[in-house]
Design a protein that fits this description.
elongated; 62% helix; 6 helices; mainly alpha
Length: 172
């Protein structure tokens, strides 16, 4: 098998999409694997998971799970009551708390409606930036191989011949 140095540039450039595809698939599989839950949660684990998603309405940037403020304690107790009743799933409990306190109680914005811009805009900027860089690199590579024509050489020679002979004099 030939080494990378012995492989012609055109062959190496043709193989990069496959490597990029493999990197994307690997990243997706790692993300799915890291996001999987180990199994059913106990009631206390469910309460902890839910309260980590909710922001304390009186604190600045703290979750209900961490905060000891009275509003956060009340929310924890409400979540515990709803989890113990077993009538609602986690999403319904979060939606109920959100109804009572508004959208400001969510630490992580929802991925629907206007809130989805929080997730979509950074990804769009990244994709556009990578596409712009790829186009610029492709254009630079194409222009790098350009060879000056005879007219270009003649123009440079003519301009060099028109230069003054005294290069030591500084223009004022």
């Amino acid at each position: 098998m030939a080494s990378a140095e012995a492989m012609p540039l055109s062959a190496r450039l043709k193989s990069w999409p496959m490597w990029m595809f493999m990197a994307i698939v690997t990243a997706c599989l790692l993300a799915v694997g890291a996001g999987r839950e180990a199994g059913p949660l106990t009631q206390q684990e469910r309460i902890d998971v839910i309260t980590k998603r909710l922001a304390c309405p009186t604190c600045d940037g703290e979750s209900v799970f961490v905060s000891q403020a009275s509003a956060a304690v009340n929310i924890k107790n409400e979540v515990a009551r709803q989890v113990a009743s077993g009538q609602r799933n986690d999403e319904q409990i979060v939606a109920h708390i959100e109804e009572r306190f508004g959208g400001r109680v969510l630490l992580v914005p929802r991925a629907t409606g206007f809130d989805s811009l929080v997730w979509v805009l950074p990804v769009s900027v990244l994709v556009c930036s990578v596409a712009g860089l790829a186009a610029a690199f492709r254009r630079w590579r194409r222009e790098q191989g350009l060879v000056p024509s005879d007219d270009d050489r003649a123009m440079v020679a003519r301009l060099l011949a028109e230069e003054p002979e005294d290069h030591d004099e500084v223009p004022r």
